[in-house]
Amino acid sequence: MATVNPRRPTEPSGRKLSIHVVTWNIASEAPPLDLNDLLQLNNQNLNLDMYVIGLQEMNCGIMSLLSDTAFEDPWSSFFMEVLSPLSFIKVSSVRMQGLLLLVFAKYQHLPFIQIISTKSIPTGFFGFWGNKGGVNICLKLYGYYVSIINCHLPPHVANNDQRLEHFDQILEMQNVGRHDIPNILDHDLILWFGDLNFRIEDFGLHFVRESIKNRCYTDLWQKDQLNIAKRQDPLLREFQEGPLRFPPTYKFDKNSDNYDTSEKKRKPAWTDRILWRLKRQPHAGSYTPKLPAPNFSLSLKSYISHMMYTISDHKPVSGTFDLEVKPVVFIPMITLMHEGLWTTENDILISYSSTPDFLSSPWDWIGLYKVGLRHINDYVSFVWVGDNQVSSNDGLNQVYINVNNIPETEDQFLLCYYSNSLQSVAGISNPFKIQPRVILQEDPPGEAQPQI
């Protein structure tokens, strides 16, 4: 029988996570065949740990919404199809009409990601219509609080005050009311991105286009409404952004690289943005500057647009970050072990241990997955830990999976323990193989037996 190792693991000095953030207003279009550049799949020097993907203007037709309710929407399916072979699993998602937010992580991080909440905040049509607004995923990552917001703010140059009002409204509606994080600003990290719809003031269409053509962006930066607002609003100033060294990402003729040639001739603008805010430490005096927490830091490695994609009137924007943390949580709440050699001829016995502070539930379950799973419900079999428990002794629990629920395949497998109270994976096993059953063939009747 497997035994629990009582020796506490050495506390890690720090961990670096590479996070790739994508925002794209897709103008109700289906995914193109190739998004390798957007996802940085061809970058051999990049070892990503997480993807955070925000889309705006998903297809909101009645038939499309009905289909997406019954099945995965085409974009979610596309990203899962591309990322699951690379060991990325969809951790969480939230959709509000045209807004979609997806979070993927490599499977080894799952026990250290706890989903706290998902929210939708509609701001269109007096706050009752979700064509504008924000969607949010709040999670704990290695013990730190992270809030991720994908939003679509009101359009047009003249509506800047309304954009800023919606920005404040979305922030206020994110307050989670927990004793540990009563306010959205109490999160260690806020990632805020989307089609923010800020425009370029004062300059005319010809000047803006000539500046873009000559790659002279300095004057345009000064008249960018978001940059102006940050100079005037103390709260907005706490949100950081990388340098805008790429051309404005709106508005293009679809299926081309030309800015808007329609009768409206929209003035180009940096509508698609990625911002972030780190929680500041309390300070003793009014003259002491506030600094980020010493055990939690974020650095921007790249902030670019992807101009080769032409399906939309917007170009996608991505930002790659290195998040360096000293983990508050570094031991999985559940450690999963499998007993001996697993075959498809017998029931499988699973052993697991838990940390002293873990609270189990009768609705907790253990899933058996093929390596390359797309999301937590992508199991080939599962068992309720309460119904299938064999023994519980000295912190070691045992459950079994019936042989009839074990597939006969050469694939590698994983076990995941899902906590119902945490709504998250509490433990994950190492990959393993299940040996197929051995079929003994009988000799044909009447055939001579070999002599020894």
UniProtKB/TrEMBL annotation:
Q: List the molecular function annotations (GO) for this entry.
A: inositol bisphosphate phosphatase activity; inositol-polyphosphate 5-phosphatase activity; phosphatidylinositol-3,4,5-trisphosphate 5-phosphatase activity; phosphatidylinositol-4,5-bisphosphate 5-phosphatase activity
Q: What is its EC number?
A: 3.1.3.36, 3.1.3.56, 3.1.3.86
Write the record's keywords in alphabetical order, separated by commas.
Cytoplasm, Endoplasmic reticulum, Hydrolase, Lipid metabolism
* A Pfam family it matches: SKICH
Q: Which SUPFAM superfamilies match?
A: DNase I-like
| Classification via InterPro entries | Endo/exonu/phosph_ase_sf, IP5, IPPc, SKICH
Task: Answer whether the UniProt record assigns the keyword Repressor to this protein.
Answer: no
Q: Which domain of life is it from?
A: Eukaryota
The residue stretches assigned to a coiled coil in this entry are none
Inositol polyphosphate-related phosphatase domain: residues covered: 15-329
Listed GO CC annotations: endoplasmic reticulum; plasma membrane; ruffle
Subcellular localization(s) per the UniProt record: Cytoplasm; Endoplasmic reticulum
GO BP annotations of the record are: cellular response to hormone stimulus; cellular response to oxygen-containing compound; negative regulation of glycogen biosynthetic process; negative regulation of insulin receptor signaling pathway; negative regulation of phosphatidylinositol 3-kinase/protein kinase B signal transduction; negative regulation of RNA biosynthetic process; phosphatidylinositol dephosphorylation; regulation of transport
Q: How does it assemble?
A: Interacts with GPR78; necessary for INPP5K localization at the endoplasmic reticulum. Interacts with PAK1; competes with GPR78.
What protein family does this chain belong to? Belongs to the inositol 1,4,5-trisphosphate 5-phosphatase type II family.
What does the UniProt function comment say about this protein?
Inositol 5-phosphatase which acts on inositol 1,4,5-trisphosphate, inositol 1,3,4,5-tetrakisphosphate, phosphatidylinositol 4,5-bisphosphate and phosphatidylinositol 3,4,5-trisphosphate. Has 6-fold higher affinity for phosphatidylinositol 4,5-bisphosphate than for inositol 1,4,5-trisphosphate. Negatively regulates assembly of the actin cytoskeleton. Controls insulin-dependent glucose uptake among inositol 3,4,5-trisphosphate phosphatases; therefore, is the specific regulator for insulin signaling in skeletal muscle.
Protein name in the entry: Inositol polyphosphate 5-phosphatase K
UniProt source species: Rousettus aegyptiacus (Egyptian fruit bat)
